[in-house]
Amino acid sequence: MAGPIKSDAHKLPEKVARILAGEIGQGRFVTGKPLPPESELAERFGVSRTVIREALARLKYDGLVESRPRVGAIVVPAGQRRAFRLDSLDPKSGQDLRNLYELRALVESGAAALAAVRHGAKDIERMEKHLASIDQALETGRLGASPDLAFHRDLATASGNPVLDDFMRFLNTKVSGMIRMARRKSNQDPVLAAMVQDEHREILEAVGSGDSERARRAVLSHMQKGALRQGLEIVIPGGPRDLGRHLEP
Predict the structure, then answer these.
(1) 168 near 119, Cβ under 8 Å?
(2) Mind listing the pLDDT tens digit for each residue in 96-155?
(3) Would you say residue 244 has pLDDT above 50?
(4) I need a surface site. Which of 36, 65, 105, 186 has the fewest CB within 10 A?
(5) 105 with 21, same domain?
(6) Three-state DSSP state, 199
């Protein structure tokens, strides 16, 4: 079995998931039985438990494992596997990117609405730290894509819904490239980068205020503006419509 792996930080969950998927396909893990604990997998691959959780989320939505309370991630028998997949998406296709932005807007706005009424103090602290990391990245000319992803991931965690949390972790493995591309474009303009950060702060403030509708609309606005920044138009029913083309999508 593979030992510690080396890769860019944002690619680690995908790489771990690929290795584990290969080992499941080769029959190295018994179907119906749990995978090794997160702590053991983290030690084996030389990564954090967060990376392992994200890798397992991908395996779940590929239909290779399923979660069982107090047991862990169980290997699903081949004949029972069902998968929700996004592998066919073309990152160069405007329509595929538009569809992905709409999916994120619908799912993440709902997560934010739940987070507004279910979050704990630690959830807010984690998201504040991610925004501080983005500020530091902007000051030093770095992208800040990793803390950006972490902010959105922990927003889903704050929803208090573990199924939604797992799905968002899986989705994040698919949109990490999109977020890096978006940050690369916005970071070219300090004013635009500051606007993006203001959108994040509005989401956090809305969640912290306990206002579900404000949190939902803050995410919808952020996603719609993010799509416009990539030259795409999306309109989510019930979301803000007067975004203004002058925002330089």
Answers:
(1) no
(2) 788 888 888 999 999 999 999 999 999 999 999 999 999 999 888 887 888 998 899 999
(3) no
(4) 36
(5) no
(6) helix
- N residues, the chain: 249
Q: What is the pTM of this model?
A: 0.67
**Per the domain annotation, does 235 fall within a domain?**
no
Residue 189 in any domain: the answer is: yes
Let me know whether 110 and 224 are in one domain.
Answer: yes
204 shares a domain with 163: yes
For residue 87, tell me if it sits in a domain.
no
Instruction: Answer yes or no: do 57 and 104 share one domain.
Output: no
In a domain, 7, yes or no: no
Number of structural domains in the chain: 2
Q: Distance between CA atoms of 135 and 197, rounded to whole angstroms?
A: 8
Whether residue 102 contacts residue 236, with contact meaning beta carbons closer than 8 Å, is answered with yes
User: Tokens 């978006």 sit at which residue?
Assistant: 182
- pLDDT tens by residue, 14-68: 889 989 988 988 889 988 899 999 999 999 999 999 999 989 988 887 788 988 8
Q: What number of H helices and E strands is found in the chain?
A: 9, 2
| Structural domain of 27 | 12-75
**Which pLDDT score, from 0 to 100, does residue 77 have?**
85
- Cα–Cα distance between 167 and 31 in angstroms, integer? 23
Q: Which long-range contacts (CB under 8 A, 24 or more apart) does 149-155 make?
A: 149/10, 149/176, 149/179, 150/126, 151/127, 151/200, 152/108, 152/179, 153/54, 154/123, 154/126, 154/127, 154/130, 155/108, 155/111, 155/112, 155/115, 155/127, 155/203, 155/207, 155/219
Q: Is the pLDDT of residue 179 over 80?
A: no
pLDDT the model gives residue 191: 84
